Amino acid sequence: MTKEIAHTGPYVARSADDSGYIHYPQEEHDIWSQLYARQAVNLPGRACKEYLQGLDALAMPKDRIPQLAEIDKVLQATTGWKTAAVPALISFGRFFELLANKEFPVATFIRRKEEFDYLQEPDIFHEIFGHCPLLTNPSFAHFSHIYGQLGLNASKEDRVFLARLYWFTVEFGLLKPQDGELCIYGGGILSSPGETLYAMESQVPERKPFDLLDVLRTPYRIDIMQPIYYVIEHIDILDEIAKMDIMAYVAKARQLGLFAPKYPPKTKKAS
C-alpha cells in the first residue's frame, strides 16, 4: 500500500511502497500522457539534438508516469547519475547535496490540468521529461555535478547568486550553434508547452549571448514567462563553464550588484 505525503499547495507527493513502486491514480497518468503528447508535437525542431537523443535513450512511457527505477537504469549506464524522490521543493542545502552525489531530485507529484502551461513548483513531468534526457549527456551531467559541489560548499549569500546560474542554464538555457538554428536545452522550457513556444517564437524576450558575470547579476521571477534568455553555442560550453572560477565570478557579481529587473514588480494580492 502506498503512502501519500501532503505538502504546501494543492499537490500530493506520492511515496513508494515496500518494493520501491510508486502508485499513481489513473487521472495522473492521463495528465502525463496529455503533457507528453503536447510536447511531442512542440519539441521537434525546437529542442536541441542532445536532448532529443537523451529522450530516445530513456524511452520513457508516453501513456503513464514512469517509475524512477526505469529512468535510473539508463542514467546509471550513461553518466552514472540516478534520481532521488523528494516530496516537493527542497532546501538549497539538500538540493546541492543531491547534485554533488550525482542524484537528481524528482518531486513525485504531477501538475493539475489548469497548470499545463506553467507551474511554480517543479513536478515529475518537469523533472523527468524536462531534465533527465540531458542527464544522459556527459557535458550536461558534469556541469550539474560541479554545480552541486560548488553549491554545497558555498555560503547562504553566494548560493543566491549560484541559483541564477542554474536558472539561466539548466532551467531556461537556449543554444545556437554558429551554423545552426536556435534551440532549447533548459528543462524549464522543455517541460512547458507555453514557454517552449514563447522562448522560440515570441519577439518579446531578449536572447543574449551567455556571459557568466552577466548571468549572475540578472534577477528573475519564477511566476512569469522569462523576459531574458542566455544563449550558449553548443552543449559542450557547459564543460568550459564548469572549468571557470565560478566562485570568483560570484564574488565579483556580489560586489557589482544586480542589474535592474526586466520585469515589473510582483503585485500583492488584495487581502
UniProtKB/TrEMBL annotation:
<feature type="domain" description="Biopterin-dependent aromatic amino acid hydroxylase family profile">
    <location>
        <begin position="1"/>
        <end position="271"/>
    </location>
</feature>
<comment type="pathway">
    <text>Amino-acid degradation; L-phenylalanine degradation; acetoacetate and fumarate from L-phenylalanine: step 1/6.</text>
</comment>
<protein>
    <recommendedName>
        <fullName>Phenylalanine-4-hydroxylase</fullName>
        <ecNumber>1.14.16.1</ecNumber>
    </recommendedName>
</protein>
<dbReference type="Pfam" id="PF00351">
    <property type="entry name" value="Biopterin_H"/>
</dbReference>
<keyword id="KW-0408">Iron</keyword>
<dbReference type="InterPro" id="IPR036951">
    <property type="entry name" value="ArAA_hydroxylase_sf"/>
</dbReference>
<dbReference type="GO" id="GO:0004505">
    <property type="term" value="F:phenylalanine 4-monooxygenase activity"/>
</dbReference>
<keyword id="KW-0560">Oxidoreductase</keyword>
<dbReference type="InterPro" id="IPR036329">
    <property type="entry name" value="Aro-AA_hydroxylase_C_sf"/>
</dbReference>
<dbReference type="InterPro" id="IPR001273">
    <property type="entry name" value="ArAA_hydroxylase"/>
</dbReference>
<keyword id="KW-0479">Metal-binding</keyword>
<dbReference type="InterPro" id="IPR005960">
    <property type="entry name" value="Phe-4-hydroxylase_mono"/>
</dbReference>
<keyword id="KW-0503">Monooxygenase</keyword>
<dbReference type="InterPro" id="IPR019774">
    <property type="entry name" value="Aromatic-AA_hydroxylase_C"/>
</dbReference>
<dbReference type="InterPro" id="IPR018301">
    <property type="entry name" value="ArAA_hydroxylase_Fe/CU_BS"/>
</dbReference>
<keyword id="KW-0585">Phenylalanine catabolism</keyword>
<comment type="similarity">
    <text>Belongs to the biopterin-dependent aromatic amino acid hydroxylase family.</text>
</comment>
